[in-house]
Amino acid sequence: MSSPIDAPVQAAEFEFTALNEARNYRRALLRDFSSYLRGNVLEVGAGIGQITSGLLQVPDIQLLSLIEPDTAFCARLRAQFPQLGVHQGTIADFQSERNWNAILSVNVLEHIEADGKELANYHRLLRSERGALCLFVPARPELYAPIDKDFGHYRRYTRRDLQKKLEEAGFAIAELRYYNLAGYFAWWLNFCLLKKRNFDADAVRLFDRAIFPTVHFLESRICSPPIGQSLLAVATAN
Asked: The domain spanning residue 79 has which CATH number?
């Protein structure tokens, strides 16, 4: 059995493994944000570059830079993407004279205890260009499970709570909607009811290939769900 000290490291590996298998999910997410990703774009919490690879395919991005606090991940990012600027640290200590058109933050805000300050720092960097924050976070407090704690999540968000925090940071909401209704029930079953502490890569692959494409088509083309596993937000800096 692993020690508690090992848990955050192992949880990160599980999280990245799941994201690696969730290829359709990742592509859909970038498509949903793509109309706002242009000019100079900053990816916050780049991890091991799984989202970064997709960002390099977005045609309207002229310059892409990365922020990542983990030393080992930064080394990996620099080796994989030598053409990109990689800042080791957090948004709080990131200083730049460049004007930023967009910031992408995917599954990062829930790791930040002072999330209001994090949003204020996003606003600081986007304000001069009235840029867009493309934000993706875990949703619904009732889904908070032991695995969330393992991941280092401080919270899961409601739509109302996230809207309030964005507006308090100076943003105007362009889009704010729940994401992945089927994932809501899958998360509740596996991690709240059964209290699993890791991902099954085969199950993630099956969900991503067989279930998610239909779910996402219905949610994006027909009707947004009333609840979901995550929240997608786009907010512009006033």
From this structure: 3.40.50.150
Q: Name the average pLDDT for the chain.
A: 92
Secondary structure string (H, E, C) spanning 146-178: HHHHHHCCCCCECHHHHHHHHHHCCEEEEEEEE
Domain range for residue 206?
4-237
Determine the length of the chain: 238
Strand partners, 210: none
pTM strictly above 0.90 = yes
Distance CA 202, CA 189 (A): 16
Number of domains in the chain: 1
Residue numbers in the chain where pLDDT is lower than 70? 1-15, 17-19
Nearest Cα neighbor of 79 from 46, 31, 45 is 46
Q: What is the pLDDT of residue 3?
A: 33
Q: 45 and 108 in contact (C-beta within 8 Å)?
A: yes
